[in-house]
Amino acid sequence: MNNTDITQLRDELDKINLELLDLMNERGKLVKKIGEQKESMKQPNPVNESDMLNQIINHNKGPFEASTIEHLFKELFKADLDLLEGGDSKALLVSREKNPDDTIIDVKGERIGDGKSHYIMGPCAVENYEQVATVAKALKKNNLKLLRGGAYKPRTSPYDFQGLGIEGLKILRQVADEYKLAVVSEIVNPVDIEEAVNYLDVIQIGSRNMQNFELLKAAGEINKPILLKRGMAATISEFLNAAEYIMSRGNGNIILCERGIRTFERATRNTLDISAVPILKQETHLPVIVDVTHSTGRRDLLIPTAKAALAIGADGIMAEVHPNPAMALSDSAQQMDIPMFEHFLKELTDHTLLHTVK
Ligand code: PEP
Ligand code: MN
User: Which of 22, 67, 150, 343 measures 20 to 30 Å from 252, CA to CA?
Assistant: First the structure.
């Protein structure tokens, strides 16, 4: 074959490429037209696709193998869906792209996400009425509104204190009502959500359950704010998708909580991923808080990390407070006692006044 022949063949190839392009776009126009008539076209339809593929493969005379043709057409079908979905519909509901305005979560008048700093404080676990009431009194005295406490504790060891369950929720509710506070507590089982809504103002989904999809779906079905903690080994994208599970079921009242991720570092219990805060604030419209207790596991780091969290744009801070940390049934090494808590708060409020970062 001489050079002129090859040039001629290449010209023919170029011509067919352009014809294919025109045909593909013709096809795209048809797909769009059908999509306008039929909403259901916007979902993948495996039965339809398989019928079309069979027909195409039966028609194939080569030289391409059936598997190659199948692969090429499957790509075309994927492109059909993209075409039908249009530009921004692929954006997550939790994304700023979908909703540019900040979401503010109103918990009994405490408006998380309003640009001010909010505090969610209380013991790791609910142990008894007295213990919770002592912390609630300290919160009230310091004009705080949001009380936390675990009733269902997801403990690493099955031999550790597992929490008081529903009794714990009852104690939280009683104390919160007596001191006019709002209460946040973790639920670990989807079947408990229905009853928990009677006692709680915010339902927490913990780090270990961030990808418990049945729990996320159940949280999406209720009309209560959800505090969703980042999984200890979850990427930001996985975290956002977990929030999307809740929001796509109809519950958009979600507070995101960075609580440290697992790294090789052993100096702290987890590694506080501080840059996750501005990333989450940029990429989502949801409020973002930082749990300084579980991210550091160290009392000496609570004030500096909380300052850093507020300075970098967090909407609030979660930290554990116990009347007698040494006797606590869980996380005794990292909880603050009441005087420490008051010092913590003073340091932070002074800091916030000095650095009006928002
Ligand atoms: C908690 O907040 O009580 C808790 C168990 O935290 P995490 O899920 O972040 O470990
Ligand atoms: Mn704890």
Answer: 150
Domain at 3-91: CATH architecture: Up-down Bundle (1.20)
What pairs with residue 257 in β-bridges?
229, 289
pLDDT class of 42 with cuts at 50, 70, 90: low
Ligand nearest to the CA of 206: 1
Ligand 1: which atom is nearest the Cα of residue 259? 9
Sign of CA dihedral 327, 333, 335, 340: positive
| pLDDT at residue 157 in the model | 94
Name the residue at shortest CA distance from atom 9 of ligand 1. 207
Starting from the CA of residue 204, give the closest ligand. Answer: 1
Q: How many residues are there in the chain?
A: 358
| Ligand 1 atom nearest 124 alpha carbon | 3
Cβ(259) to ligand 1 under 6 A?
yes
Mean pLDDT, to the nearest integer, of 117-143? 98
Beta carbon of 168 within 6 Å of any ligand 1 atom: no
Position 131 pLDDT exceeds 80: yes
pLDDT at res. 358: 43
| DSSP alpha helix (H) spans, the chain | 3-37, 46-59, 66-85, 129-141, 166-178, 190-196, 213-220, 236-248, 276-283, 292-296, 302-311, 338-354
Residue 247, SS3 per DSSP: helix
pTM: 0.81
CATH number for the domain formed by residue range(s) 105-357: 3.20.20.70
Domain chopping of the chain, boundaries? 3-91, 105-357
Nearest-ligand number for the alpha carbon of 336 = 2
